[in-house]
Amino acid sequence: MQHAARRRFAVLVAVVIGACSSTTSVGEMLLGTWSIAGFDDHGTPGVTTGTWIFRADGTFDALGTITYPGEPTDSLRVSGTWLERSETLVDLTVAGETTVWEVSVSANAALLIFRDDDGAVRITLEKAPTTG
């Protein structure tokens, strides 16, 4: 009985190690079209619509709208380049200015966080449904 328990434990450890050593990078997981689900600018949440597209060539586009409490709706149109810096960081460059963002990605959601002296900007993305 102890031999069988050891074998099951060894199999469990192998499965856990295999799950933890994924070869899919954060950059690869970001690729594709995402719905912009949330935008929080230093503690002020904005109501957002639109999509964010990360391309394999290192470019991105974010198109939609954003509305802050008590303010009119603004167009959201941002294009630039992105580069995976590490397992948890990406550089986003817009109009020649590069900022470093913390990133966490799952199969269906991504959270990007930019921190500065005033706090943080948080962007929540949800994987856009595929059609066809």
Which range does the strand content fall in? over 45%
Count of the separate structural domains: 1
CATH superfamily: Uncharacterised protein PF14869 family, DUF4488
Q: How many strands, what sense, and barrel or not for the largest sheet? A: 8 strands, antiparallel, barrel
Task: Please report the number of helical segments.
Answer: 2
The secondary structure category is alpha+beta
> Mean of residue pLDDT?
84
User: What's the CATH architecture?
Assistant: Beta Barrel
CATH-derived topology: Lipocalin
| SSE series | HHEEEEEEEE
Total number of strands: 8
- Strand order, main sheet: write it out: 1-2-3-4-5-6-7-8
Low-confidence runs: 1-21
Radius of gyration: 19 Å
Present the secondary structure layout:
Elements: H1 2-20, H2 26-30, E1 32-41, E2 44-54, E3 59-67, E4 74-84, E5 89-94, E6 97-105, E7 109-116, E8 119-127
Antiparallel strand pairs: 1-2, 1-8, 2-3, 3-4, 4-5, 5-6, 6-7, 7-8
Explain how this protein is built.
The protein has an 8-stranded antiparallel barrel with strand order 1-2-3-4-5-6-7-8. It has helices at residues 2-20, 26-30; strands spanning 32-41, 44-54, 59-67, 74-84, 89-94, 97-105, 109-116, 119-127. A hairpin with a 2-residue loop joins strand 1 (32-41) and strand 2 (44-54). The protein contains 2 helices and 8 strands.
